[in-house]
Request: fold
Amino acid sequence: MGSSTVIIDEWADELMSLAGGSTPAGARQALKATFREFCSSSGAWIRKLDPIDAVKDKEIYCLDPQPDASILYILSITPNPDTPWHMRYHGDPEIPGQFTLVPPATKDIPDGLIPYVALTLPEQWSDRVPYLFKRFYFDTILDGAAGRLFSQPGKPYTSLPMAKYHLRRFRTGMAAARDMSRRQFTALDTQFVFPRWAV
Amino acid sequence: MVTIADAITQARQLIQDSRDPYRNSDSKLIGYFNSAVMSAYNLRPDLFLVPDTTGATWNELTLYTSNDIADGTGFPVSSQYFPAFVEYVAGYVGAGDDEFVLDGRAALLLSRFTQKIIGGAV
Reply:
């Protein structure tokens, strides 16, 4: 749980070069909106939480709030492999960190439930994001923020063709991020290898 | 850090009014500067974004006075738009009705303000 963080200046400096005439505050605003859209659309920021106890006859459980993120939705609640038991759950759209077991546990099971959640940025944000965004999704985030800036009307950097180009790359990057996160960063979905002349 | 005083000084150089006693008072020029701020806010409200931890806000526009020249008050937006504000002030002085006016140059300076704010033109 938790990871090292990087400041969004990593992206802001590149963004200011792309969109001449933008201000630092405008670039940061575009980056923040892009991070939020990326997290909510791709669900790529995944975290396995500490196991929680299953309590006899208890239906509603609340996950602990994360210190560096907000829970977007629950990806899965799996039973502890050491004490497997048949269970189903459903989440609550108004309280993202809350779920209901159906049916409830018939006995107390310590560490009986292992939650996996998708995260997004916290409400109070300090201009720092987890390192995984820089390592895996740097260009995708940059494309999203650039597309957002280029699509603003009446600006020195307004350019609809550039906006379309960057936003297309952003959407492709989000789809790839969603795919990789679901595969838990283990393997590509294909064994295709580009020929030497195309590399 | 550029200041409002720097903008007024450069505007005076453009309108050939740098020597005391001035033809155009500080209060007159600062009034035109306030107009430039309001015009910029109309054209580019993003120049006045104030980011914070939950998003971004816009503060109420500040109306400056000649005291801000003496106090060294900072330029209210990103300094890359400093020349545009200088040209706005000089342009509006030129739009006045006196024997020192050059109408064509005034119109050019005012149009350059808009071009620089929304078009990025040099």
Q: What stands out?
A: The first strand of chain A starts at residue 5 and ends at 7. The helical segments of chain A are 9-18, 24-42, 131-150, 160-182.
